[in-house]
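ok trying this again, last paste got cut off
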Amino acid sequence: MAGNRVTLKDIAKKVGLSMATVSRALADHPDISGETKNRVREVAQALSYIPNYRARYLRAKHSRLIALIVPEMNMFFVPSMITGINRVVQQNDYSLIVFQSDNSIVQERRLVEYCTHLSADGVLLVLSSETSNLQHLDVLHEVDIPVVLLDKTIDTVKYTTITIDDEEAGREAASYLIHRGHTRVIGIFGDQRQRISTQRLKGFRRAHTEHVIPLAETQILRVTIIDELEEQLDNAFAAHPDLTAIFTMTDELLVHTHHLLSRRGVRIPEDVSLLAISDGQAPSFLHPNVTHLRHSGIEVGERTAHILIGMIEHNSDAMMDVRIRTTLVEHGSVATRTAAPKRRQKR
């Protein structure tokens, strides 16, 4: 058998059993005795047997593959989200395959089509910044492959989406700072082509309106490329020497903002308070630990995987709009203001 793939037939011949019995033994079927299972596994291991999953999938007409397409792999949120997805996927005897679209709609379209060639049982999709409509998902819909959009989505009545309540999170963040006496808050937001950014900004504005606090456009930083942040932050300090707090809508913006404040010699929270929406890991690495609205990547991943697997196994294409609540976690990065702070000069 050297040079050839070992098959069930080879194992069956070696142990003197039928191929059907060998197959059930390797699948841990309850009708097969423990002694027989052990004997079959020992022979399979000795022969370096590798299961032919492709043949198994063709027989079952299910690949038991779930595809996840993300815009990019970074150290923020995505790893914990994948951990949550993979945990549920494995518990339900599926396998997860992860693709990166490089934040490109062209690559996203290619990957979506590729998922049909893989015969994926379901697709999880975090949209790229360039995605403005979902027409490219029709190819999945036509072959009955369910799709769930998570985290970064756009408005849709056709596909299930799972996010936090982005507008409410933005409102809650700004309200928390206002209640702590901060009436001049800088809000740092991501790419405005994404719903996640526009909704969090909408909530940030709404909180100021509700509390009758003026909000100048120069208090809103829109960061499409992270290298733009330093110049925008410099401009915000120049325009608002009375600013006392900064809100960042993501972990990535939080970490870069914290670094830039440190470089300026700005003390947190003595000079400027800092608040973020975060999955909770980055705030624990910074000093002081950063107060945040916790947006758990693991929870989003687990909920998303459970919903998609339910759609697969019940052959359902019902549309749901799931919103996961955030939780306020208080640390030492937000001070209570009763008077105007003394501002340190930029070094």
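PB: full thing came through this time. The chain has three domains: 8-51, 62-164+297-325, 166-295.
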